[in-house]
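Whiteboard transcription, Tuesday session. T.W. wrote the structure tokens on the left side:
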């Protein structure tokens, strides 16, 4: 308790160790007992907000202490720098924190202690995380036909935690302690320390993360896989034609398909491409390179979906470029006069799935849909939005997907390695909880552009589409997490599908997707040997090679609560809680002002977020721009996310990874307004930020650009003026203040916790 008192004392106490990221505002339940309404008592001296622990200060301190340094992973149970700190990782036996982060780096040694400490034991794993250019990419190990070396009992893969003995002829598994014989072809003598002579020549013996080339035993039907395919499925109903969206997509694809992801060292991408357009019927296109013109084939019986052609549907873009460009020119013209507003959805997924099955490959469907599927067909949906349910016991039913067809589709897609990415352009309710169900269980992504207009949302959509097509990805993946004796993985969260209790199945896994794994004790852990875990991901590369990606991590174990709390990684904890508590975020705060679809969308978005993404989502960056040094390359230091930090004469940029706001104070200097918007008066309604030829404009655009590059989705910039109606949207992100829809302020919450702890201690 004294540890907590030290952390939460509102009277200028310091944080308990450099790695505690402080209690994050917006990360606590709003309606705790004794919330603001029940906090009556003797009048208290007004607290100075600067004297209480603050997220921004902790971030700054960690950056000052560990920023710009090399983080070497050779120490067990070492707490990494915060996700907000700029550091370089050198792998020396434990996986980089970019791939795996834990809620604590010192596990309690017993189940009783785990219960007592109330800290969930979990790892947030991002198996395909992007690695900066200055860090070494993963080594690929090829053991030939013999395949990767594995333990006999628990089947763990060879890693730095295996102990060699008997002159190198046997090894003891670091996970289950079983003694195994070393295969003849893998034998190597030991040095005087008992280490293999080839230790540093073998990635699997000296590194935390690496890849094995998988043998045919790891392939479906013992056959090498085909490279994946990308199928673009465009809703050509009235709304999408009228808004100009169909033309925008077709124009973009002509250049974007040149940038399909390719294997390291390959000249061109091995990914095949195919095209479908649809409204209430589906149109498939033959784009075989030998054709002078593309050919359309129509399937109007959507209840019995089939693919009307095999040869010429999935093609190599480079070979069929002329026919494909011809098709992309024709599509907007073909449907220019359409009046058809009805659409189907489930048959579209079914069609893509059948095409991949016929081609015997995995792949991704890019579906561009504008409305709820109301046409008589499998997967038809009805409007079930009901504001009267908000705040009642039945509210949760609004966010539960309608089962049946979509449940079976999910299962079939995962089995084939068919990932679904959904780009939604709704003008009204579309039941995102159901439409997003297949994408969210197949490793897919969901994007939403309400009331889409090319001139307003066009660039945001194109940025998202480009990144989505180009990003690194693996297909037809199965992940298993093995642990040392004494604890095991029990629960899994993310854009995943689970057929049993141990295998995490993902039709695809990309660089943005994280899987949260919770652990429970089944015995006492040894403080001497610590706790080890291994994440093994079997997948197909974009070039059609079957591989195993291995990430290993070793933690300390302790019987001391103080040690455990000191080793906590708060940002990872908050990421974990985000799956389980009511937070101050749009998903879970009940309010009729927020649409059901917006809340469902938010819920699906955070489902597979990594620690970096939830950190900034739950504690947005508020950056003062009026005092910035225009000659510096650095982004100005953020201030606390509270109304108190705003000033009438200031300009602030706020971003949380999903939204970006430029806030203009009422008394903002006219020369600054002129430099940014090219207007002389403050009485104007800005809708966009022009690119102007002056130092202030260049600097702000540079800041926005570098922030955007760090984020997984494109953020549309909203400009809000102080006291305008639109300011309410901005204010709901000031998470240190009282929530607009309920929830205490950060200061109130800390005082409440401090008082509760004082009471416990006395």
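and on the right, the sequence the group agreed on:
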């Amino acid at each position: 308790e004294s540890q907590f008192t030290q952390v939460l004392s509102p009277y200028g106490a310091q944080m308990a160790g450099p790695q505690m990221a402080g209690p994050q505002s917006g990360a606590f339940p709003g309606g705790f007992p004794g919330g603001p309404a029940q906090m009556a008592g003797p009048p208290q001296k007004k607290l100075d907000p600067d004297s209480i622990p603050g997220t921004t200060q902790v971030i700054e301190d960690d950056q000052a202490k560990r920023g710009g340094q090399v983080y070497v992973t050779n120490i067990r149970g070492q707490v990494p720098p915060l996700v907000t700190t700029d550091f370089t990782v050198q792998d020396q036996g434990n996986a980089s924190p970019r791939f795996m982060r834990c809620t604590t780096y010192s596990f309690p040694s017993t189940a009783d202690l785990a219960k007592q400490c109330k800290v969930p034991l979990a790892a947030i794993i991002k198996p395909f995380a992007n690695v900066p250019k200055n860090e070494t990419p993963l080594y690929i190990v090829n053991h030939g036909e013999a395949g990767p070396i594995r333990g006999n009992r628990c089947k763990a893969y060879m890693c730095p935690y295996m102990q060699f003995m008997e002159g190198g002829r046997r090894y003891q598994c670091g996970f289950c302690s079983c003694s195994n014989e070393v295969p003849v072809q893998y034998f190597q003598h030991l040095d005087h320390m008992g280490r293999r002579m080839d230790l540093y020549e073998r990635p699997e013996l000296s590194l935390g993360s690496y890849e094995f080339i998988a043998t045919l035993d790891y392939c479906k039907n013992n056959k090498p896989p085909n490279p994946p395919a990308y199928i673009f499925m465009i809703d050509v109903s009235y709304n999408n034609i009228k808004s100009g969206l169909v033309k925008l997509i077709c124009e973009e694809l002509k250049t974007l398909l040149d940038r399909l992801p390719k294997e390291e060292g390959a000249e061109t991408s091995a990914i095949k491409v195919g095209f479908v357009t649809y409204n209430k019927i589906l149109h498939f296109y033959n784009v075989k390179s030998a054709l002078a013109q593309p050919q359309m084939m129509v399937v109007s019986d959507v209840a019995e979906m089939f693919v009307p052609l095999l040869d010429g549907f999935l093609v190599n873009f480079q070979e069929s470029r002329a026919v494909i460009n011809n098709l992309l020119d024709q599509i907007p013209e073909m449907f220019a006069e359409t009046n058809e507003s009805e659409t189907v959805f489930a048959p579209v997924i079914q069609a893509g799935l059948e095409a991949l099955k016929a081609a015997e490959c995995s792949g991704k469907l890019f579906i561009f849909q504008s409305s709820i599927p109301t046409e008589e067909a499998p997967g038809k949906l009805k409007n079930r939005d009901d504001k009267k349910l908000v705040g009642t016991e039945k509210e949760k039913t609004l966010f539960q997907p309608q089962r049946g067809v979509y449940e079976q589709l999910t299962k079939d897609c995962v089995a084939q390695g068919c990932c679904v990415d959904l780009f939604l352009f709704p003008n009204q309710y579309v039941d995102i909880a159901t439409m997003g169900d297949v994408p969210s269980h197949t490793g897919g992504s969901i994007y939403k552009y309400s009331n889409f207009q090319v001139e307003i949302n066009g660039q945001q959509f194109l940025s998202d589409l480009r990144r989505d097509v180009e990003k690194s990805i693996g297909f037809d993946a199965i992940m298993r997490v093995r642990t040392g004796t004494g604890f095991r993985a029990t629960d899994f969260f993310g854009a995943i599908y689970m057929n049993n209790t141990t295998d995490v199945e993902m039709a695809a896994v990309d660089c943005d997707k994280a899987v949260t794994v919770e652990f429970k004790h089944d015995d006492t852990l040894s403080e001497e040997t610590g706790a080890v875990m291994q994440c093994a991901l079997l997948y197909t590369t974009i070039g059609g090679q079957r591989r195993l990606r291995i990430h290993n991590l070793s933690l300390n174990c302790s019987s001391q609560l103080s040690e455990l709390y000191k080793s906590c990684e708060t940002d990872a904890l908050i990421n974990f809680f985000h799956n389980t508590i009511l937070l101050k975020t749009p998903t879970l705060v009940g309010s009729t002002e927020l649409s059901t679809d917006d809340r469902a969308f938010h819920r699906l978005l955070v489902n597979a977020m990594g620690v970096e993404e939830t950190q900034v989502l739950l504690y947005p960056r508020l950056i003062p721009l009026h005092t910035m040094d225009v000659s510096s390359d650095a982004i100005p230091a953020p201030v606390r996310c509270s109304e108190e930090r705003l000033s009438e004469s200031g300009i602030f940029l706020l971003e949380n990874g999903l939204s970006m706001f430029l806030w203009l104070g009422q008394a903002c200097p006219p020369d600054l307004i002129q430099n940014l918007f090219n207007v002389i008066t403050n009485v104007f309604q800005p809708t966009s930020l022009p690119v102007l030829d002056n130092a202030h404009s260049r600097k702000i655009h540079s800041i926005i650009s570098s922030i955007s590059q760090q984020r997984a989705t494109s953020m549309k910039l909203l400009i809000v003026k102080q006291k305008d109606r639109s300011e309410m949207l901005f204010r709901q992100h000031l998470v240190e203040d009282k929530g607009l829809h309920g929830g205490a302020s950060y200061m109130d919450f800390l005082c409440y916790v401090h008082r509760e702890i004082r009471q416990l201690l006395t």
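Someone added at the bottom: Residues 1-41 have pLDDT under 50 and may be disordered.
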